[in-house]
Amino acid sequence: MNSKKSDRTINILSSETVAKIAAGEVVERPASVVKELIENSIDAGSTQIHVVIRKSGLELIEVSDNGSGMSREDASLAFEQHTTSKIKNDGDLKNIITLGFRGEALSSIAAVADIELNTNNGQEQTKVNIENQIKKTDNTVTEAGTTIKVKNLFKRVPARKKFLRSETTEFKHISDIFIQHALAQPQIHFKLTHNNKEIYNLPQANDLKTRIFDIWGNRIADKLFNVFFDGPTLKIQGMVGLPEIVRKDRSMQYILLNNRPIRSELIAKSVNDAFHATKAASFQPIFFINLSANPQSIDVNVHPRKLEAKFSNTQEIFISVKRATQSALEQILQKNVKQIFDNKITSPSFVREPMTNYVKPQTAQSAIHPRSKNLVSKSMDFSKELLQPSLIQKEFQTTDLRSAQFFNTFIIVEKDDKLLFIDQHAADERINYEAIMNLIEKQQKIPVQALLVPDVIELSPAEYELIKANLSLFTEAGLELAPFGNKTLKINAIPNILDNFKFEAFIREILEREVLDFDNTEILHQIVASMACHGSIRAGKVLQPLEIRQMINQLFECKKPYSCPHGRPIMWEMSKYEIEKKFKRTGFC
After folding, report:
1. Which of 22, 167, 263, 486 is deepest in the core (most CB within 10 A)?
2. Is residue 330 located within the same domain as residue 474?
3. What pTM was estimated for this model as a whole?
4. 383 and 419 in contact (C-beta within 8 Å)?
């Protein structure tokens, strides 16, 4: 009898194999189980959730709540694949309002561990026990709500244990999941116990800040500011840390979408960009941001463990989060700066309003472009009036500051029991940037100085077309650029507050940083920031006492006097006490 060997290479997998594959997607580590069980408790309307862990979850994960509980039929059915009370059909996937919805968590966990469920819905009290994948359902006596115990995790897939980290690391992942949900639901009493030791006991809180205080204490809670935005399709609420508590990692960046903890590079970048002028690029801000959006405009079904979401309006979200954070940050920092100096530093009216009357302290020379003495400058006569001793004396006679320049690069200011160190280039850069941006925001024309001998730069064809396509934005910033033959640009005029402007270096920086790929608002900011950098007082320039005083006053009238537009710090302070410690004078007369 001849038997023909089958040519079939496609295999139909057994239900047990399918279950373990599904479990591999859902149950990556013990923290994955904790996440799924906490989400079920939240969806059940719980006001109390207690998580008990032994041996970082490998021996026991127990989650108990006082939620709605389940009927006997539902409790038994919940462990079957793709069974859920959260949705009924594919149409519901477009309007997900619960944390869970796939109906695969409990079945996936049962495929790799033993489970015991006790539930009380107020009418029935049921126990479901699954050991070695054998399910038994019985009556029981238990408190209202649901308690699920997961034992011997990965007992049926021991190879998975080889990929786990130490117990300390695995418990840290569990703790992170616990904190994420505790932040998302401050109205719920959360408790976490590990190896019979209480780790967190977070009572119900009325607001996010109280919950943050309960977790981290005053060291974080006292250094946060509120962020709020209320738009027609998007609402943003949250708290963000001041620049003084930035970190070297992202471990304290929490993003919630409709109270669902998610990861989002888009949101993280938007907050980080809002801080670009207040911190070094290598540091990360602390933030707790909650976005409320129409469920139909987002997709939370794009990640196996529901850790990410897809937005239909990414640009709106990015800009809204960035601007809301930026606006709140500017207000709080401006307030702090004014408090430091007790509002005793005043600024002459000619410095900020209007800019047509603005001329740098070294006026007579700064109005002349270094490439040519033949400049058209209408501010020369005003400059002479500005430098009259009577005006200057009146401005500074009420101040109590002493200041000086050192290394021809830095300024030192004595104020009460503090010394303030200022980088003169970064300070002038900030002053120039805000002076120009203030006029742009008010839609006022920027006064310029015309060059009789234009500066020119030759570019590659691609670079030339890129700059040419954005000429209107350069004009809005006060730079009059124009094509000058094949692949060449010329500059006819620059803002009259710029000093020794480096045109070619400026254009090269704009191109190298690829800032022309952003939206128009961001492009304009980048143009003005780079323009201010390449047209400000440089290190090595000797400043007269009058110039120093005026720079200090101008700086502290800025919205962000603490860093240049590119994020480099402008100043730092040292207290008298710190100096005394260096001389070992503390405790002595």
Report:
1. 22
2. no
3. 0.61
4. no
